Amino acid sequence: MSEPIADHAEPSAAAADGEVSSARFWNACQGGKDNYERDRQAVEAVEAIAPGISADARSARQFLRRTVRWAAAEAGVTQYLDLGAGLPLEPDIHHIVSRHQPDARVLYVDNDPVVLAHQGAYQDPPLSSYIDADMRDTDTVMAHVTECFDLAEPVMLTFSSVLGHFSDEEAHAFIGRLLDRLAPGSCLMLSHDIPTPAIIKACEVYSAAPGALPYQPRTIEQLLRFFEGMDIVEPGLVPLFEWRPDDATEMTEIMGYGAVGRLR
Question: What InterPro entries does this protein map onto (predicted)?
């Protein structure tokens, strides 16, 4: 397993121009090392407006880890499709699920050039691989999924704090196209910020930063729509830290909600 490629030595043109990378911003929020001073300044600016946003980002990462551990250890899922993977931050999905399912397969998807530069950390064949693709391009994504996975068996889709970058119409469309191809027992996991006053202001500040990909929070009612026709795993759609917490779970301000649904 190779180490993540440090993203400090030779700044990209975007970083040199003072632009913020969404992937690096969230990496900085979560305490990662693969970010620039510009990204850390953006985090500080957002944190000044919405104290706790970094803790919220860490909480989303912890939620991702707990949900995939549940899927592997308790639900017996062996196939994982991580959409909008972002920058690697160990332990990543393939590290976690392989402890419980040695024959697991994980496919990471992102189309950020910053993430592409770090793809080596996601490449651990045959356990895991990475594709450079837009998650909305479901034909391309599913072509790779068909090569890597057995679609007669359940697959877990993970959307960790990324759906706010898409409109309702876009998000429901591409999630629906993916779910239509999956077997019963497949899972949909998502984490998402809700429109608290602090989050609304934070999104305004972040979205105004040069190069930032705008992010919009969703209400609990809007998030529930993504699980229509599915069985939501207990404890349901809840604040991130309330979903089957463990010793590593941080208690934070309630900014993000998350859930896992299973296809009937």
Answer: SAM-dependent_MTases_sf (IPR029063), SAM_dep_MeTrfase_SAV2177_type (IPR006764)
